[in-house]
Specification:
The chain is of the alpha/beta class. Helices cover 32% and strands 16% of the residues. It has ten helices and 15 strands.
Length: 371
């Protein structure tokens, strides 16, 4: 191991609402935005953690990896450096369908277990949601209809259906509890990469006003259904060129706890240019709005650069107060699709150096629920 109550408008399913000029919901009743003590501690410590270093995160880290699946306690990251990531993310896609497993064929019961395990390590869990298209029945990437968001907002033909989907998400998050009944805090990150147009909630698929209303409906419904163990993250892609563009669809400080962005390397120079620009943008906004900042998704598929971790990623990050950086999954069904090293991978030795650097934090380095 290395050393080192605000009020918001409640939007209940089926409630008749109107939208004012700011895009915020107007409602007949309000709900207090209470949080569990553990969730408040998580937010407090996330605001402090960047003074210690940058937490490393990996998607689906403990549920499968290259050449394995479902091995208790296993992790490609841990196999390389001896410790788990400080942040692990999972996806809720297809929870809305009522089945037993998510879009990557991981059982929701397994996710519950792994979320509790990460909490007990003192680390954090982030949840994304690649929700299926509620209008067409297609997946999250089905952009054949440009009215999907409008159709699920209050008054839309699919609003009741989507309200049920939000109810399923609320039930799942509320169910995340330890053996002694403590609700596990999570960072919920829906409607991500909306500055692109590859998801049905993307930039060309809805107006800024509708996108903000989608956010309000999401957060207000979860709060109204008793979700008091979630923080919320806003994470566009790297398309915004300045703070104005970044904030164009921002739903408001009363909803958002963490701001970040998603970006991936294809060309190193282009990647670094975009990474530095986006980091400067979220750094500026984070300071002005008192928000935690993070690189919510990144990576280099296959990691062919043996020195990528210490030669490309870390030098870009360490100039900014980044709470965490998260790389995408190591797919067991497509062995060329991985973003963290595994034993024998080209960048393994460099990742160990990345791990040893005092500026990087893994599960053994953090206690995010300590007072």
């Amino acid at each position: 191991m290395k050393n080192l109550k605000v009020l918001t408008w409640a939007l209940l399913a089926g409630l008749t609402v109107s939208c004012n000029s700011t895009g915020k919901q107007a409602s007949e009743e309000t709900v207090e935005n209470t949080r569990t003590a553990e969730t408040e501690l998580l937010l407090k410590n996330l605001k402090k953690v960047s003074a210690q270093g940058i937490m490393f995160g990996h998607h689906d880290d403990t549920v499968y990896g290259i050449g394995w699946e479902g091995d208790s306690g296993r992790s490609d990251v841990k196999s390389v450096c001896g410790d788990y990531p400080a942040v692990i993310s999972f996806d809720l896609g297809e929870l809305e369908l009522g089945g037993e497993a998510n879009l990557d064929k991981v059982a929701f019961d397994t996710l519950r277990k792994e979320i509790v395990n990460q909490y007990l390590r003192g680390g954090m869990v982030s949840l994304s949601w690649h929700a299926r298209n509620p209008k067409t029945g297609g997946d999250a990437w089905d952009v054949t209809d440009t009215t999907v968001v409008k159709s699920i907002l209050p008054g839309g033909e699919y609003h009741h259906k989507f309200a049920g989907w939000l109810g399923s998400v609320a039930s799942f998050i509320n169910s995340l509890q330890t053996a002694d009944g403590v609700k596990v805090p999570v960072l919920f990150r829906p409607w991500h990469e909306h500055t692109g147009s590859w998801f049905w909630w993307g930039e060309k698929l809805c107006t800024p006003e509708d996108y903000k209303e989608l956010w309000h409906m999401t957060v207000d419904t979860l709060r109204a259904k008793g979700v008091d163990n979630a923080l919320f993250a806003y994470s566009p892609g790297s398309e915004p060129r300045d703070t104005t563009e970044y904030l164009r669809r921002y739903p408001g400080d009363d909803l958002i706890d963490l701001i970040g962005f998603d970006t991936y390397q294809f060309n190193r120079d282009v990647y670094l240019e975009g990474l530095n620009r986006s980091l400067a943008i979220v750094d500026s906004i984070g300071k002005a709005h008192d928000k935690v900042i993070a690189v919510t998704e990144t990576g280099y598929e296959g990691i062919p650069d043996a020195k990528w971790w210490t030669g490309t990623l870390l030098p870009a990050l360490e100039k900014y107060p980044v709470a965490y950086v998260l790389v995408w999954r190591n797919a067991r069904e497509k062995v060329t699709h991985f973003y963290a090293p595994y034993p024998g991978q080209t960048s393994e030795a460099d990742f160990v150096e990345f791990y040893k650097n005092p500026k990087t934090l893994f599960a053994g380095d953090v206690k995010l629920y300590a007072k």
